[in-house]
Automatic annotation (TrEMBL):
This is VWA containing CoxE family protein. Residues 1-22, 157-183 are annotated as: Disordered. Gene3D superfamilies: von Willebrand factor, type A domain. InterPro entries: Uncharacterised_CoxE (IPR008912), vWFA_dom_sf (IPR036465). It comes from the Bacteria. It holds the Pfam family VWA_CoxE.
Length: 484
């Protein structure tokens, strides 16, 4: 009688193929369950029971398969899993590391990793439908942070558009001997915007006004760009406790973003060294190395002594001519991220010495926000997001502010889809020709995404002032260059 053996999902050999690898079968069961749950919220009984058998057999807690269990809760109950989630999806430099001759150890590690990866992906991407509570939003944001950590990034890094940093010392070329894993580095730029889109959808599905009216529920909200956008759009419909809680959330978010941007801006010099001013002859300015070098001819070998004829001092005086920075921000619906980021950035630059900052926001009407530029929180509360776009009304406010063109930079943030494109561009070109620095910015969003009107893009390029787009760090670099 012919013997037919196969491998059971739990690893036990049954009738079927005698050469089947039980570890491969186990991993396939977990990934089939992952795909089934991503595309269909209904449980597949066979896959669920088989996956439970696999998870228990490899020593992982059954809660790993519970979609209602947050990763934070799982790690709190099983602290040893935290190290496994960190860098979980970071590719390994040498796939064979840690495997014995037949590779069994690696295959067993792959099954364990498949179970952990499935948990992270399902908690983040199977976001369901219907009304979302504040607790559910906070849990999703925490789980998204674990996904970012699994990809070797800091929590909030992908959603914040800050690729490049690594969380917890995780190496981009190693996973601690857990076996080979696909290189997802090419996907990371796309994952960030997708996470942002899911988060925005969750916020839209949340009964925000009801949550804000309850201090307990409002305290559980985690500020994010999507949440702040909803708060700014709805602020005129809020009052009492709900309005106070909304303002508290906006203030928290502003402070968090300001801390990040301030670190970048503070590295900027407040002015170039002015060598026309003689150095002040005080000890702290003494250039000891230069003094010794210039007096080496006075060295006495017999006495082993250096005689100094002249002391040299460092120049420390900086040019103190005030720089004028005029920031014009499109506050239409497509530019919310830019409005928030640039309002905060303008307030930080306004805090630097010898920098005169003006802020103008516009849609079909323009608003001079300069009196509140030092307080981004108050500035944002005065904005009215949405509407069309007519940059000529903003230009009417911005142009009179250019008193000394050579000492002025105009930063214009917009997607440049304008009602009156020709006259607006001519005004911008005139600013450039006057000697002022004109910087068109297509987006300074959290994701770096943003569509820019091709008509304007080509003309700015021909003018010699190409559109900056991408992360806000690019704009910070340009402004630092202007100030130094």
């Amino acid at each position: 009688m012919t013997d037919h053996t196969t491998a059971h999902p739990t690893g036990h050999t049954v009738e079927g193929n005698p050469e089947a690898d039980p570890e491969v079968n186990r991993r396939q069961v977990l990934y089939w369950r992952l795909l089934a749950r991503l595309f269909d919220q209904e449980e597949q009984t066979t896959l669920e029971s088989a996956s439970l058998a696999v998870v228990e057999d490899i020593g992982l807690p059954p809660a790993l398969l519970d979609p209602d269990t947050a990763i934070d809760s799982l790690v709190q109950r099983h602290p040893e899993l935290a190290a496994e989630f960190d860098g979980l999806m970071v590719p390994e430099a040498e796939p064979g590391t840690g495997a014995d001759e037949d590779g069994a150890r690696d295959r067993a590690a792959e099954v364990r990793r498949a179970a952990l990866v499935s948990k992270v992906l399902l908690n983040v991407f199977a976001s369901g439908s219907g009304t979302v509570t504040a607790g559910q939003l906070a849990r999703w944001q925490s789980d998204a942070g674990w996904l970012e950590r699994a990809l070797g990034c800091a929590p909030g890094e992908l959603r914040g558009g800050r690729p490049g940093a690594r969380a917890g010392g995780v190496s981009p070329t190693g996973t601690g001997g857990r076996g080979p894993t696909p290189d997802l580095s090419r996907l990371i730029p796309a994952i960030g915007p997708e996470l942002g889109a899911i988060e925005a959808d969750l916020v839209r599905r949340m009964r925000l006004r009801e949550v804000l009216a309850d201090p307990g529920l409002a305290a559980r909200l985690t500020p994010s760009m999507s949440l702040i956008e909803q708060l700014l759009r709805d602020k005129n419909n809020l009052s009492g406790v709900a309005l106070a809680n909304a303002k508290a959330l906006i203030r928290r978010f502003v402070d968090e973003v300001a801390d990040v941007l301030r670190t970048q801006v503070e590295k900027a010099s407040v002015g170039a060294i002015d060598r026309s001013v003689p150095p002040k002859r005080v000890f702290r300015n003494l250039d000891l190395d230069r003094t010794i070098w210039k007096n080496l001819t006075n060295w006495s070998p017999e006495e082993e002594r250096l005689y100094v004829d002249r002391l040299y001092y460092r120049h420390t005086a900086r040019r103190t001519t005030p720089q004028r920075l005029i920031v014009v921000v499109d506050q239409s619906g497509s530019m919310v991220d830019s409005m928030v980021n640039c309002t905060i950035l303008a307030s930080i630059f306004a805090g630097l010495p010898k920098v005169d900052v003006h802020l103008v926001a516009y849609d079909t009407q323009a608003l001079d926000l300069t009196p509140w530029v030092h307080d981004p929180f108050e500035t944002l509360l005065r904005t009215d997001l949405g509407g069309g776009t007519d940059g000529t009304v903003a230009m009417a406010l911005a142009q009179p502010k250019i008193a000394e063109p050579r000492n002025t930079v105009v930063v214009w943030i917009s997607d440049f889809y304008e009602w009156r494109a020709e006259p607006l561009f001519e005004s911008m070109a005139a600013i450039h020709r006057s000697g002022a620095r004109f910087i068109p910015v297509g987006s300074v969003t959290s994701s770096g995404r943003g569509s820019v009107n091709p008509w304007f893009r080509e003309r700015f390029k021909d003018l010699g002032t190409p559109v900056i787009s991408g992360h806000i760090r690019k704009l910070v670099h340009e402004l630092k260059t202007f100030l130094t």
